[in-house]
Structure formats: C-alpha cells, structure tokens
Design a protein that fits this description.
single chain, about 40% helix, Nucleotidyltransferase, domain 5, 5 helices, alpha/beta, 5 strands
C-alpha cells in the first residue's frame, strides 16, 4: 500500500463562529494543499472536516500517517473513544451526547479503508506542515468573515 502523510488543522473565530480548515497531503515528492471554510461552525467541526476532506482525496487504500494538533480528533481515534460513543448510540462514557456525530460517521467510514496511524503534534510550534495548515485555516475563516 502507498504511504501518505496528512497534516490537518482547524480554526474558528469564536466558537461557534466563522471557521476554516487546512490540510497538507504528502506522497513521496508530491504535496497537495487544500482548505475551506464555513460561516458558522466550531473549532472541533473544522478539525474533523480537515481530516475528512484530506481522506476523501485518497483513491485507494493507503497507509496513512495522520498528524493533527487536535487532542479531540487524535485521542478519540487513537484511544478508540469514538467507537465506544458509536456503540452506545453516540453517548459518551459520562452519559452526555457525543458532538459532531454527522462528521464522526463520515470519518469512520473513510478511515475503515485505510491503515491509520495517529500523531498528535503541538500546535503553533516548529512543525512547518502544522503551521501551514494553521495558516490556511485562519485565512479561510478570515475570508468567510469578510463575506458576512
């Protein structure tokens, strides 16, 4: 299987508020950037959307090294919390409803076809790809805000 490295980030001005997401996909010497935004969203929704949109680009099963500064995304996947939420009818262990179920369902469907490896990276630090994703995400929420 091909190995793909994906970096993602989401950003929001207010929570909820205008938001943006960014992703960088790396395959060998090839790199692709993508980003988008929404008028009214949350930071966690943008973090999830970045991962979803990046995985949608993969045309075949791959070994995916996913890097994100979102503990929400990385912990829910790596520690398999999201599978427990789903098994309990999208209820968390504290008996509160899970948030962003629509996005988690999309994400679970996408990751099922890949061999996934999860990596948390410190945000706003020295990781050039995480910083680039942050730049794109912020630019997207600013663009959305200007259009409102």
């Amino acid at each position: 299987m091909k190995q793909v490295i994906i970096y993602t980030d989401g950003a929001c001005s207010g929570n909820p508020g205008p938001g943006g997401w960014g992703a960088v996909l790396k395959y060998g010497a090839h790199e692709r950037e993508l980003s988008g935004g929404e008028a009214s969203t949350t930071n966690n929704r943008m973090e999830l959307t970045a991962v979803i949109e990046a995985l949608r680009l993969l045309k075949e099963p791959c070994v995916v090294e996913l890097y994100s500064d979102s503990r929400y995304v990385i912990d829910a996947l790596e520690k398999r919390w999201v599978y427990g939420w789903k098994q309990r009818g999208w209820v968390k262990s504290d008996k509160k409803p899970a948030q962003n179920v629509d996005l988690w369902e999309q994400l679970l469907s996408l990751i099922a076809r890949h061999e996934m490896h999860y990596h948390w990276v410190k945000g706003h630090a020295e990781n050039e790809y995480n910083n680039r994703c942050d730049e794109m995400a912020v630019a997207e929420w600013k663009a959305v805000k200007r259009c409102q």
